[in-house]
Amino acid sequence: MPGKVADCLRTAELEPVERAALDQGTTVRRVRGYTLRVSAVPAVHRQLLARCRPLDGGQGLPAVPARRKGRRAYENRVGTPTP
């Protein structure tokens, strides 16, 4: 997951399983920022993806293009969430 998404999720209230997945992730440094490699079942990734929905803006929050792009990239890696 992109670092912008990981930063957002670190400040959110998460379930214990989601928090454990983030804490056990491996940080990979890139030229600008980092990527967090998280090993978890797809259901946990979908939950994390749903929690970072505010990065798209809305609810009175401004949308920052880099964060929005990071969320879209993570969504493309995880796949479309199933209801």
Structure notes:
- The protein is mainly α.
- It has one domain.
- 48% of the residues lie in helices and 10% in strands.
- It contains 4 helices and 2 strands.
- Helix 3 packs antiparallel against helix 4.
Low confidence ranges: none
Average of pLDDT: 84
Oligomeric form of this entry? Answer: single chain
The beta-strand count equals 2
Strand order of the largest sheet: 1-2
N-to-C order of helices and strands: HHEEHH
Task: Quickly count the domains.
Answer: 1
From the alpha carbons, calculate the radius of gyration and give it in angstroms. Answer: 12 Å
Features:
two-stranded antiparallel sheet; 4 helices; mainly alpha; 48% helix; 83 residues
Which secondary structure elements does this structure contain, and how are they paired or packed?
Blueprint: H1 3-10, H2 16-23, E1 26-29, E2 34-37, H3 42-51, H4 65-78
Short structural summary:
The chain is mostly helical and 83 residues long.
